[in-house]
Amino acid sequence: MLLEIEGLTKEYKRNRLPFPAVKDAALSIGAGDFVYLTGRSGSGKTTLLSMAAGLLKPTAGTVSLEGKNIFTLNDGEISFLRNTKIGYIPQGLSLLPNLTVEDNVRLPLYLSGKLSGKDLPREGTKKARSLLEQVGIAHLAQAYPPQLSGGEQRRVSIARALINDPVLLIADEPTGDLDQETTAEIMRLFSDIAGKGAAVLLVTHEPETVPYGNRHYLMKAGTLTQKN
Ligand SMILES: Nc1ncnc2c1ncn2[C@@H]1O[C@H](COP(=O)(O)OP(=O)(O)O)[C@@H](O)[C@H]1O
Ligand SMILES: [Mg+2]
Q: Which residue minimizes the CA distance to atom 25 of ligand 1?
C-alpha cells in the first residue's frame, strides 16, 4: 500500500475539554487510486488530510507512507518525506506574496534537493513553466500572487504541488473557487496523474468532480466510512 491509515484519531481542546475531530479513521490508498472524500463542513476532513500529509501529529493511530510510519520519524525526516513524496494543495490560499508565480511553483524543488545545484535553475524553470501551462496560466509566470484571482492562485498551488512528481497528491477542496470548465480541466489533470501511477486523495464539495474518483469515503462528525 502506498498510504495506510489506521486508528487515526485527533483530539483538539475546546473550552479546555478534549474534542475529537477525527475518530479511529482507517483508509488505504494504492498507486493509481483516485479517492475522494466528502462530508459537511466541520466534520474533520481537513484534520484528516493534514495528518495524512504529515503536517499534523495525531493523538493516536498511524499513517504509513510506502510502509514507513511517518510519525516515528523526526521533523527533518518528515519534511524530507513530504517534500519528495507528497504534493499537498491546502484549503484556502497559501502562496508566498513576494515571490513570482514561477518562483512559488519552483520553491518545493529547491527544498526537496531532487535536482543537483547546477541543473536546478534551468530544469526548475522548464518544469515550472510546463506545469503552469498544464493548469492554463503560463501567461502569469512573472506575476505576483496578490495580482491574481482566487481561481488563478488555486491553479498556482496545484502546479506547485506537482513540481516534485509526488507519489501522493492530497488536495483539500482544490476547485471550490473555480468555474466548471476549469474544474473539469483540473480533474482531468488529477486523473492523468493517477493514471500514471501516483495516488490522489481529494476532498470535494462539487458533485461534478465525483465521477473522476474511483473510491468514495464520507466523513461524518469525525467518523470516516467507505461508501464504495
Ligand atoms: N486547531 C484547532 N483547534 C481546535 N479545534 C479545531 C482546530 N482545527 C479544527 N478544529 C475543529 O475540528 C473540527 C473539524 O475541523 P476540520 O477538520 O477543519 O473540518 P472540515 O475540513 O471537514 O470542515 C471543527 O469542529 C473545527 O472547529
Ligand atoms: Mg476543511
A: 42
Of the candidates 136, 167, 166, 169, the residue with the CA atom closest to the CA atom of residue 154: 136
The structural domains of the chain, with segments of one domain joined by +, span 3-96+162-226
Question: Domain 3-96+162-226 has what CATH class?
Answer: alpha beta
Give the Cα separation of 165 and 211 in Å (integer).
Answer: 24
Ligand 1 atom with the smallest distance to the CA of 172 is 21
181 CA from centroid of ligand 1 (Å): 30
Candidates 26, 6, 18; CA nearest to 70 is: 6
pLDDT in tens, 41-95: 999 999 999 999 999 999 999 999 999 999 999 999 999 999 999 999 998 888 9
Between the alpha carbon of residue 17 and those of residues 14, 47, 98, the distances in Å are 5, 18, 40
